[in-house]
Write a structure and sequence with these properties.
With 223 residues, the protein is α/β, with parallel strands linked by helices. It contains eight helices and twelve strands. The N and C termini lie far apart (39 Å).
């Protein structure tokens, strides 16, 4: 499995990573909430191990935001608090399982193995606008019968446009929905990615589905 470990305790992260690598898993580590959110949004992981107490954005908010972005990989939350109300809050936020620190390595391994056998908790519907389709589960995009290969940010941008087809989205809202919580990038980052997206879903097929709304933002035309 490809696992994302979001943990700011470097000693614990090193121990967990070493254990999982020995079990032949591929492990990436993030040390802050925003970093974990960015990695889990932009890259595909089979499973996320997410600490509750994180710098920048706590694990609960990261979990909620991932589910809001329709990222359905299983999430195992780690916390030093064994209170029932906190476990309930984590599960309601979209976590699939919960493990209290300190924990035995064997128990963590067993829980991850069990989660890895599960299908995602929810299979979102395939989005369709005209002959353009997007499957959030397989992350496949098609224009008619042709498969369109998109980079992660392009995929997220198109996903937003297709969920809000026919609506005008201003640049500030697009930044908020597609880029991570604390993104502080160049002012034209949205325009650059829209241009790239058009070059893949419109130009090769002789269509113009993404409209520019002057001085506001963009809109994906409905069929």
């Amino acid at each position: 499995m490809r696992v994302l470990l979001v943990e700011d305790d470097r000693d614990l992260a090193a121990m967990v990573r070493s254990m999982l690598v020995q079990e032949t898993h591929t492990v990436e580590v993030a040390e802050t909430g925003p970093e974990g959110l960015w990695m889990a949004t932009d890259f595909d992981f089979d499973l996320v191990v997410l600490d509750w107490e994180l710098p920048g954005t706590d694990g609960l908010a990261v979990c909620q935001e991932l589910r809001a972005r329709e990222r359905w990989m299983p999430i195992l939350m780690l916390t030093a608090n064994s209170a029932v109300d906190q476990r309930v809050a984590g599960l309601r936020a979209g976590a699939d399982d919960y493990l209290t620190k300190p924990f035995a390595a064997a128990e963590l391994s067993a829980r991850l193995e069990a989660l890895g056998r599960r299908a995602p908790t929810e299979r979102p519907v395939v989005l369709q606008v005209g002959d353009l389709s997007l499957d959030p589960s397989s992350r496949e995009v098609r224009r008619g019968d042709a498969v369109v290969s998109l980079r992660p940010k392009e995929f997220s941008l198109l996903h937003l446009f297709m969920r809000r087809a026919g609506e005008v989205l201003d640049r500030a809202e697009i930044l908020d929905k597609v880029w991570d919580l604390n993104f502080d990038g160049m002012s034209n980052v949205v325009d650059v990615h829209v241009k790239s997206l058009r070059s893949k879903i419109d130009k090769p097929f002789g269509t113009e589905s993404i409209e520019t709304i002057w001085r506001v933002g963009y809109r994906l035309r409905e069929a």
